[in-house]
From TrEMBL:
<keyword id="KW-1133">Transmembrane helix</keyword>
<dbReference type="GO" id="GO:0006508">
    <property type="term" value="P:proteolysis"/>
</dbReference>
<feature type="transmembrane region" description="Helical">
    <location>
        <begin position="16"/>
        <end position="35"/>
    </location>
</feature>
<feature type="transmembrane region" description="Helical">
    <location>
        <begin position="42"/>
        <end position="61"/>
    </location>
</feature>
<feature type="transmembrane region" description="Helical">
    <location>
        <begin position="162"/>
        <end position="185"/>
    </location>
</feature>
<dbReference type="InterPro" id="IPR052348">
    <property type="entry name" value="Metallopeptidase_M50B"/>
</dbReference>
<feature type="transmembrane region" description="Helical">
    <location>
        <begin position="90"/>
        <end position="115"/>
    </location>
</feature>
<dbReference type="InterPro" id="IPR044537">
    <property type="entry name" value="Rip2-like"/>
</dbReference>
<comment type="similarity">
    <text>Belongs to the peptidase M50B family.</text>
</comment>
<keyword id="KW-1003">Cell membrane</keyword>
<dbReference type="GO" id="GO:0008233">
    <property type="term" value="F:peptidase activity"/>
</dbReference>
<keyword id="KW-0472">Membrane</keyword>
<keyword id="KW-0812">Transmembrane</keyword>
<feature type="transmembrane region" description="Helical">
    <location>
        <begin position="206"/>
        <end position="228"/>
    </location>
</feature>
<keyword id="KW-0862">Zinc</keyword>
<keyword id="KW-0378">Hydrolase</keyword>
<feature type="transmembrane region" description="Helical">
    <location>
        <begin position="127"/>
        <end position="150"/>
    </location>
</feature>
Amino acid sequence: MTSATARPSDRRISPVFLGIVAVAAVTGWATWTGFAEQPGVAVFLFVTAAWVVSLCLHEYAHARTALHSGDISVGAKGYLTLNPVKYTHALLSIVLPVLFVIMGGIGLPGGAVFIERGRIRGRWRHSLISAAGPLTNVLFAVVCTAPFWLDALDGVPRDFRIALAFLALLQVTAAILNFLPVPGLDGYGVLEPWLSYNVRRQVEPLAPFGLLIVFALLWIPALNGVFFDAIDAILSGLGISEIDTYCGFELYRFWQTDELCSVVG
């Protein structure tokens, strides 16, 4: 078993991540104040930057939990720096999830951290490592929806409100998709330590295709409708209307307009 020596730089927050946080903060402020001449551009940058921040924190949660569970190698791999380019492949981890947001308004699970599972003892620890990521999305969803279910929207500008509603939708979809017990997704990672060796061996070849299978199924209109009906029901229970998430998505895609959303207050 190899050893890993901890260095201060292994845990130093990446300037790349801080830059993304700064973009989210500045464009969020521009959306709130109406400072931007084209609010759609500000909303696009705000939601995209906030979404990438949540992707980084999702993977960081996996890595941090693994660190405390016994895998000290995660620091040397750069997983504790919150640098998005350290999480597997930039295209698969960041670009592809952002493209799915643009095309379909859905939170694609992105990125991955490679945990040296042999360093970790105990099935509960393995399950917790897998659960830590999507639980971060749940926490993000709670933060994004809090103004709605706390009825604290007085004085919140319309553009910021619907942008926050759309961001909440992304976090809820990401949490649900990640928790599906499908090989390759975190939900299966939670269950895997409790399965027999034979079952794990039979299922393992499916892991690289699990996410593709899920999204192929979501292309089926009936299943897509059931999925988004469930998302809308959850958001409605948290005080977010379907029109808010719809108009948030439309404003996010600033290159197109919708007359319905232009009259929504």
